[in-house]
């Protein structure tokens, strides 16, 4: 009996190891105090839906801690950032946030980066407004993002906002209003957070997202998705301190909806490059 129990224990240990190898999740999160000086703690708000929250498979490189990149956890505490950064749903995985944070930390070694994860999978832009409730996750995305940002800003300085959303709005009716809706959202965030010139970077939707097929079975591009991507580009002419990044060269994880981990990291690099360019434009001396 003793040998059977030991054999079972070994098998369970091996199985657990294999599961973690397929999708690594940090078993321990380490709390860390931010810098005492607010200007040395640069905060970034991460908002949108599932492709900002991240659905890529977590690998070893996504759990390597950087003491200068922190995240605000669900309880409102600062901890060393590791993927998953978000916690909107149990399937949260690798998104662009961690790579973005690492790059921003590398660009300015005098500061600590604070990531404020607030993206909510499946949320349309219509629930990113005051008082709107999202029943899928039983939260008010906009209100919660404001509350978490304000909490973080007690210890740091808001340095930027990154946004990836639009899959839910890829319909003829919703996509037609997307440009104006996002312009209003950016203005609300800036007003509510008393940061009128905070840089805002949005991400375009990937071409692999399809909703229809041709008679021959081949995927057919979604014209509403193209309309949203066009709106994201055109906002450069309407909104100051704004930029967008392309999703070209990215791949899905097999569901024609979510970025795989490598693509999410690629977007993280692009977000950082665009954010840094906006910041340099605002402060040429940097």
TrEMBL record:
Key words of the record: Hydrolase
UniProt keyword Magnesium, yes or no: no
Annotated Pfam families: SASA
Residue span(s) of domain Sialate O-acetylesterase: 41-276
Keyword Disulfide bond: no
Top-level taxonomic group: Bacteria
Gene Ontology MF terms: hydrolase activity, acting on ester bonds
Protein name as it appears in the record: Sialate O-acetylesterase
Organism field: Hymenobacter wooponensis
């Amino acid at each position: 009996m003793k040998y059977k129990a030991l054999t079972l224990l070994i098998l369970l240990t091996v199985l657990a190891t294999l599961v973690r190898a397929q999708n690594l999740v940090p078993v321990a999160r380490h709390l860390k105090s931010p810098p005492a000086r607010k200007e040395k703690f640069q905060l970034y708000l991460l908002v949108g839906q599932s492709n900002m929250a991240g659905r890529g498979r977590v690998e070893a490189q996504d759990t390597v801690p950087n003491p200068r990149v922190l995240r605000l956890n669900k309880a409102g505490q600062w901890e060393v950032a590791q993927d998953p950064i978000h916690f909107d749903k149990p399937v949260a995985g690798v998104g662009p946030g961690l790579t973005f944070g690492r790059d921003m930390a590398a660009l300015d070694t005098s500061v600590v980066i604070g990531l404020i994860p607030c993206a909510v999978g499946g949320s349309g832009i219509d629930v990113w407004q005051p008082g709107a409730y999202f029943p899928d996750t039983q939260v008010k995305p906009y209100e919660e993002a404001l509350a978490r940002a304000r909490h973080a800003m007690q210890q740091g300085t808001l340095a930027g906002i990154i946004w990836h959303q639009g899959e839910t709005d890829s319909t003829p009716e919703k996509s037609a209003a997307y440009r104006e809706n996002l312009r209003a959202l950016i203005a609300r965030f800036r007003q509510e957070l008393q940061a009128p010139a905070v840089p805002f970077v949005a991400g375009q939707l990937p071409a692999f997202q399809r909703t229809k097929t041709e008679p021959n079975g081949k995927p057919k591009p979604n014209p509403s998705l193209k309309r949203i991507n066009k709106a994201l580009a055109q906002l450069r002419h309407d909104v100051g301190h704004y930029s967008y990044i392309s999703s070209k060269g990215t791949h899905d994880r097999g569901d024609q909806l979510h970025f795989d981990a490598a693509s999410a990291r690629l977007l993280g690099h692009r977000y950082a490059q665009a954010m840094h360019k906006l910041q340099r434009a605002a402060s040429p001396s940097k």
